[in-house]
Each structure stands twice: as structure tokens, then as C-alpha cells.
Design goal:
This protein is an alpha+beta fold. The chain has helices spanning 2-10, 37-41, 170-192; strands spanning 45-55, 63-65, 70-75, 80-85, 92-97, 101-107, 114-119, 130-138, 156-160, 165-168.
């Protein structure tokens, strides 16, 4: 039963496509000539809204908001564009220009850092304000565990033409989650011993 529950939790381990869907797939904006100053400032962007949580390695695998995790927005060359701190009360909000590639890195002392990639390239006729919601789970570092699996992105977010919205690359994310499932089991049993 414990293994089944751990497997079930891992479906939500980093990103759960069912629960971490877009807040609103897109935001309708009037014709450019009718835009307010505020709308003009946010016109061609992807607004990422995310909650950083800690996943406690217990039989019940508790999810708790993680305070003061550092969220770094990096450009395609790895340069830091902005830095944010997670809070228990409010999600992290990142404003990404369209037609670019980014990496979002989340880290906190004593926790295993993770990152995911965002590709905001999309067809020119789809340039408008978009939004996407994510949850990211960090877990505490445990001695004796190989974390090299997390040297690659745990997810990729990109524009999916078929759905006309930004979403996860489900094939890539599913493969990474399979690998993370075994690592989570190892962590649980090492911490238990």
C-alpha cells in the first residue's frame, strides 16, 4: 500500500498535468489601438504563476508550501534575469517575453534544486498575453542519494498548437517522472532507516 501511495504521489511529484493546468488558457485583449497603457505593457508575454511546495518523505507524503525558496529566471545563455522568493501565502509570478527560451531554477538550502525549461516561441498570429500555472515540489537532501538525474530539466513548457495554449511537453515530463519515481522511493527508504 505504501509503494502504491508513493507512486501516486509521484504523479504529482514535480508537475501534475491534471492539477497544474493553466489558470486561464489565454487572456482576451482588445485590438491594439484600444489597449490601455497597462495592457500595452503586458501584451506579448507569458505570465507563469507557480507555487513552490516541499514534499515530506513520510507514509502520507505531506505537501506543504515552502517559504523562502529562491526562484531564478535565466535566459538561454544562463544569465540571471530576475530573482524571486517563494512565500507561503502568495504564488511566484514571472513575466516572460514571448519568442524566447528561459530556464526557471528553484533552490533552497537543505533541499535538492530543480529546474525546468520554458520555450515561449509560437506562431506570430498567436502573439498575445498567455498564462500558465505550475506547482513545483522540492524535497530535502538525504545523504547517500545520487541526484545527478536532476542535472536535466524536470519539465519543458512550450506552446502546443493543437491546444492553442502553453502546456507541458507531456512525453518529456512523463519520462522524467518515471526516473524520479525510483529516486523518490530510494529517498523514502533511506530517510526511514
Amino acid at each position: 500500500m505504501r509503494l502504491f501511495f508513493c507512486g501516486l504521489v509521484l504523479l504529482c511529484f514535480f508537475v501534475n498535468p491534471i492539477f497544474a493546468s493553466s489558470l486561464k488558457d489565454t487572456v482576451n485583449i482588445p485590438a491594439k489601438k484600444n489597449l490601455t497603457k497597462r495592457e500595452k505593457k503586458t501584451y506579448h508575454y507569458l505570465i507563469l504563476t507557480g507555487t513552490i511546495k516541499q514534499l515530506k518523505q513520510t507514509e502520507k507524503a505531506k505537501e506543504l508550501p515552502l517559504d523562502s525558496a529562491v526562484v531564478l529566471l535565466l535566459d538561454s545563455a544562463g544569465n540571471v534575469i530576475s530573482e524571486h522568493l517563494s512565500t507561503i501565502k502568495k504564488p511566484v509570478v514571472l513575466k516572460l517575453k514571448l519568442e524566447k527560451k528561459y530556464t526557471i531554477k528553484i533552490q533552497k538550502n537543505g533541499y535538492v534544486p530543480k529546474f525546468f525549461d520554458v520555450n515561449t516561441t509560437l506562431p506570430k498570429e498567436k502573439l498575445r498575453l498567455h498564462s500558465f500555472r505550475f506547482d513545483l515540489y522540492l524535497y530535502e537532501k538525504v545523504q547517500g542519494v545520487d541526484y545527478s538525474l536532476l542535472n536535466k530539466a524536470v519539465a519543458i513548457i512550450e506552446y502546443i498548437p493543437k491546444h492553442d495554449k502553453f502546456d507541458y511537453d507531456y512525453v518529456y515530463t512523463r519520462e522524467v517522472n518515471k526516473e524520479l519515481k525510483q529516486q523518490y522511493k530510494d529517498l523514502y527508504y533511506l530517510k526511514k532507516d
